[in-house]
Design goal:
Structural class: alpha+beta
CATH superfamily of the largest domain: Baseplate protein-like domain - beta roll fold
CATH topology of the largest domain: Phage tail proteins - horseshoe like beta roll fold
Strand content: 35-45%
Mean pLDDT: 95
CATH architecture of the largest domain: Roll
Largest sheet: 13 strands, mixed
Number of domains: 4
Number of strands: 23
Length: 348
């Protein structure tokens, strides 16, 4: 592998291509995405238009909060990475003056303000759809099945509220363009990316395998008000959504080598055993994904994105296998285009 590569990128501002002057002033372009967080962009530009003897990009006519921006990155053919809006400008006036333009995809709109609201006779997927439409987004949801008599949103943002509901279900919350997704964790899906070989496709990988200190069995308990009895549900070995190609799960290895690490939690107003079982399985699989965590670096690849899985090859047989990408940083500067990524794995 060489030490540099030629980056190709496109930026549209309010539907139009950047002017040649602005495009040529860009020094650094960064796009970051992470599971359950708004994707973010940063553009650093030379703030001095020396040819005309004036400042550039800071008149609040060229850029201002709320302006729509889309970024495509790649090598041969740029891929759309993010559609969002500008939220801030940072100015550095110095010997080398810069303006940094920052913003997020439209998931960030759910962070605006807080709400006090009661949802009655709705599923979580219904609630997510209602909130999406409130922010002008088209809902893309997986049916959550359980209908609740009522759900309280108590003085928190729509984002924090939905994130809490998603964690309970092991769902994911993200936006693409003008669509809001509230869907099952994508970790169990088969890899969408081509296989990655060490040295050919990635140049660094730092992995950490840890004994799992909780979650080998997950018990959920609650009180059924209508029937006036306790409800109990259990998730244990056999409820893994995936071992990601490994022979043993992280719980298998921890229990065999050290000891069990059961956990339990109480759920207010638990509807029935079915809801309890789903909540237990969600917690079980979420905790299992902490077995192997790691981060790596490869030459710029716009297909490497949070929410996708990849099979990493070229290391010891037990560590070779499928990994779930939880975050990425795509950066273009004078050194070229590089991608950093973080991964998780449930088995080995």
């Amino acid at each position: 592998m060489g030490t540099t590569n030629v980056a190709n990128y496109k930026i549209k501002l309010n539907g139009s291509d950047f002017s040649a002057d602005l495009f040529n002033a860009i020094e650094t372009l960064t796009v970051e995405d992470e599971i359950n967080l708004p994707s973010m962009f940063r553009i650093q530009m030379n703030m001095v238009d020396s040819g005309n003897g004036k400042w550039r990009g800071i008149d609040l006519k060229t850029f201002k909060p709320g302006d729509k921006l889309s970024i495509s990155m790649g090598l041969d053919k740029p891929e759309l990475m993010l559609s969002g809006e500008i939220t801030s400008l940072e100015l550095l006036v110095a010997e080398h003056s810069l303006v940094e333009i920052r913003g997020y995809d439209l998931l960030h709109r759910l962070r605006m303000g807080t709400r006090n609201k009661v949802f009655t006779k709705k599923k979580d997927s219904d609630i997510a759809s209602e909130i999406a439409r409130e922010h002008g987004l088209t809902p893309q949801v997986d049916d959550t099945k359980t209908i609740y008599p009522y759900v309280f949103q108590n003085n928190i943002s729509n984002y924090d509220f939905l994130l809490k509901r998603a964690a309970y279900l092991d769902y994911e919350l993200y936006a693409q363009d003008k669509k809001l997704y509230f869907v099952k964790s994508r970790a169990p899906k088969a890899p969408e990316l081509p296989e990655f070989n060490y040295k050919r496709d990635y140049e660094e990988l730092n992995l950490e395998l840890r004994a799992l200190t909780k979650g080998s069995e997950v018990t959920v308990r609650g009180w059924n008000v209508k029937e006036k009895k306790e409800i109990e549900a259990l998730a244990k070995k056999g409820d893994e959504s995936t071992k990601m190609g490994g022979k043993e799960s992280g719980y298998d290895i921890t229990v065999k080598s050290i000891e069990k690490a059961p956990v339990s939690f109480w759920v207010e107003n638990l509807i029935d055993v079915s809801e309890g079982k789903a909540a237990a399985a969600a917690a079980y699989n979420s905790l299992l994904r902490e077995f192997i965590t790691g981060e790596g670096k490869c030459y710029g690849n716009p297909l490497v994105r949070a929410g996708k899985s990849v099979k990493l090859l070229g290391i010891d047989e037990r560590f070779t296998g499928v990994y779930y990408i939880i975050s990425t940083i795509h950066n273009i500067d004078k050194q070229g285009y590089m991608t950093k990524f973080k991964v998780k794995r449930t088995g080995i």
